[in-house]
Amino acid sequence: MKRLCLLLIFIMFPSTVFASEIATREVLPNGLVLLQSEQHNLPIVMVTLAIKAGSLVEPAEKAGLANLTASLLTEGTKTRTASEISDEIEFVGGDLSSSGGSDYITVTLSILKKDVDKGFELLSDIVLNPAFSGDEIKRKKALIKGTLKAEEEEPSIVASRAFKKAIFGDGPYGRPVKGFPETIDRITRDDILDFYSRFYASNNAIMAVVGDLNRSELKALMDKYFRGWKQKDIKPVLYLQPSEPTSPKLIKIDRDVTQANIVLGHIGIKRDNPDFYAVSVMNYILGGGGFASRLMTDIREEKGLAYDVESFFLPQKETGGFEVVLQTRNESANTAVEEVLKEVKGMMADPVSEKELGDAKSFLTGSFPLRIDTSRKIADFLAAVEYYGLGLDYVQRYPEYIREVTREDVLRVARKYLHPDRYILVVVANQRKAGVKY
Amino acid sequence: MKIPVKRFIAVILLLFLPVTVKAEVKEYALPNGLKVLLVENHNAPIATFQIWYRVGSMYEQIGKTGMSHLLEHMMFKGTKMHGPKTFSRIIQRNGGVDNAFTTKDYTMYYQKLASDRINISLDLESDRMANLLIDPKDFSSEKKVVMEERRMRYEDDPQNLVYEAVLAAAFENHPYRWPVIGWMSDIASIKRDELYNYYRTYYAPDNAVIVIAGDIKTDRIMKDIEDTFGKIKRGADVKTPVIEEPGQLGKREVFVKKEAELPYFLSAYHVPDLPSKDGYALDVLATILAGGKSSRFYKSLVYEKQIALGADAGYDGLHKNPFLFFLSATAAPDKSIEEVRKALYEEVDRIKKEPPTGRELQRAKNQIETSFIMGEDSIFFQAEILGMYEMIGDWHYKDEYLKGIRAVTSDDVMGVARRYLVDDNMTMGILIPQRIKAIGDQG
To answer: What pTM was computed for the model?
Structure first.
């Protein structure tokens, strides 16, 4: 029953919690990048293994291949069945999970220090020796297709899917990471074996280890369990930039719901865009800053039109999206869209106030320690820092980048990256009641 | 905003020497009845402030459900000193995040901040404990927001509608039967003055508990709490409603027809709350049935038979009064909910007939214990767990929890399954999906 969940993308909010570098970094002889942060407050160890084998490198006609491959890792190895894996890890109260993603897939291990050897043994086994048995593939495909069907029940997911498809088409960011029922059906065991052999390699992975292990303890574990992981020659996969629409487009999806679920947006930026920091500040003021944002002030606080409204850029390896998302009762859909467009245009018309700028900067620079306040969060953060090439001094440099942003920068990036003249608008609603006119 | 330090502070400090001397948790009571729990944790330069009020939807009246939650919303709408739309802005400007939630038994507000700014919480929270405005215009606009929240969480979420319907049928007398967010027409009917009286009744130092965890200095922060909250007068005596739910005399069934993709069912059984011997055994039972991929439900329904997308068992014992044990499952596409239900109850019947194996029991205990230890990695969780136990009775229950779990035997697990998971004690809700309309025009 939360008042509001601030949906913040954690990678965007670093500052200074670590006086020196946040972790040590080492490239192992087999090319695996190993990041370690020692935390000795509790006898626990958190590992995040990121492998550059996300949906970004899968073929569109086999959408879901990357996710399926990742999620099969825990479902059996050459010497262990799926049940044996779950029983062994859960018997010691640990967790070993693998999941898909668009830029990279992750395998995570959470374990007590006393069981860390067992944890690494299992982690290594599922990553290096997965069986991909026919039975497990069949089972997992059915489960994923079922989940896709269940998600059709959620208007917000339906809206988000339609939006992504409209701006990215068949491109990797345009499809659900899980794929589509028909593309999942098309995936064969050979596809999985081939995908695994192309992308699962020590020199294509990042491992972040956080917790109660010192350097020599970690080194011993890596020697024992990951020295045998082989390097491969990874061939780059060509990414085709989707073409952008030139005029606004409305997509209406009719459902018997009481609220219109609205997504309005367009193409955004890449993570390595130098304007990332100015865009972060600009978006905070527009709709990323919860109750401090213009969209929330206008649409929730003043007009009572929605419980939640927010805007976000999803800066990824390739150009990600920009979205404004809200839910409002069917009858006020038009009013809400009107207000969104008004606020977007407002960002482009005049510079933000000094106060807005100052508030945004203080939040963005000040809130980082809260974003990495557990070992699990630090491990995930480290993997992302490495993947996006931000550098281990990122936590020191981030506040500097943010502080440099001026009102002129905010206006400039608003004009450059907001496009109220060629947005995609998705409305999942009872269309008769909503009567969307856009 | 900082209130000057008084000269006689040392004298005052003597008044709140720890009531209980424990290594990690320090407990204090201010003369005005405010209880304070502090956990020093210097691992990172951050702190979390939480204030817990002993009021939730079980304190509400028929026709005015949702008051506690609506009040939680209004708590962000300003005081004389801090106008509307300022609370969260001040927190965010200081690099913090804040939020709140309302439950059936209590309402909690929190901030997470750099530890050198945690006094901002003291200033803002003490101010809104005593000086909330509830401006009529803001009030009517916020009611609309809450109605949007209800649409999002319930009206358009088929499985949550089933939950709501099951609770309404499982409890006949106890206010646990209505939703925390309230019924739509009740939210609409609440008057500004009614809400203001509700605030005056329940928001007072002697009806609240503060929990702070993180990089704080106990002496220093107690002085500051005295300077801020210490000035607020006691409230009127609040009586916690004493309501007994009559024993259930037979199975109850409810159906929800709603546009949805997959059938779903949810069964609820009346059970004792925590701390109790049966409560610990029910927690272990839920873990054996549905804790992870090695659990019985996952293995049977999801993995072997492949008839369910997911199957769950949950014991919700952290309530002021006895609540419920839940069993639920979502059917896989093209599988009937009857088949799913039958398979799930085969597992329930099995654990009633023969106790779990020693390894199963130990695995469940290890899972519970490890997640408890890992939770300690978050100062927010450290504070939250104390607050939750304090709200249902006493934060010391937290220390008994793992002892209670460790003491559970295989026979205890079988025993609670036999005692509570019986038809006469069950309320079952079934979602009957109505066909989703075809995708409409695209233009």
So the answer is: 0.93
ipTM of the complex: 0.92
Query: Phi, psi (5° rounding) for residue B176?
Result: -60, -10
Specify whether domain A249-434 bears CATH 3.30.830.10. Answer: yes
The residue length of chain A stands at 438
Mean pLDDT over each residue of chain B, to the nearest integer? 92
Q: Which of A201, A261, A199 is nearest to A235 (CA)?
A: A199
- What residues in chain A have per-residue pLDDT under 70? 1-20
Indicate the residue of B140, B294, B439 with minimum beta-carbon distance to A83. Answer: B294
Question: For chain B, which domains are there?
Answer: 12-229 (3.30.830.10), 252-434 (3.30.830.10)
- Please, which pLDDT band fits residue B96 given cuts at 50, 70 and 90? very high
Q: What is the pLDDT of residues A97-150, one digit of tens each?
A: 999 999 999 999 999 999 999 999 999 999 999 999 999 999 999 999 999 999
* B200 lies within 8 A of chain A by CB: no
Q: What is the mean pLDDT of chain A?
A: 94
Domain edges within chain A: 2-225, 249-434
Q: State whether residue B245 sits within 8 Å of chain A by CB.
A: no
**Same fold flag, A2-225 and A249-434:** yes
271-330 of B, contacting A, C-beta below 8 A? 291-294, 299, 302-303, 306, 309, 330
Query: Mutate which of A9, A18, A84, A153 to disrupt the B interface (most B C-beta within 10 Å)?
Result: A153
**B188 contacts chain A (CB < 8 A):** no
CA of B86 vs chain A CAs: smallest distance (Å):
8
Q: How far is B361 from chain A (nearest CA, A)?
A: 10
How far is it, in rounded angstroms, from Cα B373 to Cα B366? 10
Does B151 sit within 8 Å of A369, measured CB to CB?
A: no
CB contact under 8 A, A256 and B259: yes
Task: Dump pLDDT digits (tens) for A137-181.
Answer: 999 999 999 999 999 999 999 999 999 999 999 899 999 999 999
Tell whether B181 is within 8 A of chain A (Cβ).
yes
Query: What length is written for chain B?
Result: 443
Pairing of strands A259-267, A321-329: antiparallel
Secondary structure (DSSP) of B404-427: HHHT--HHHHHHHHHHHSSGGGEE
Architecture of domain A2-225: 2-Layer Sandwich (3.30)
Q: Which of B275, B322, B267, B282 is nearest to B415 (CA)?
A: B282
Task: Provide the phi-psi class of B229: left if phi over 0, else alpha when psi is between -120 and 50, else beta.
Answer: alpha
Whether the CB-CB separation of B378 and B41 falls below 8 Å is answered with no
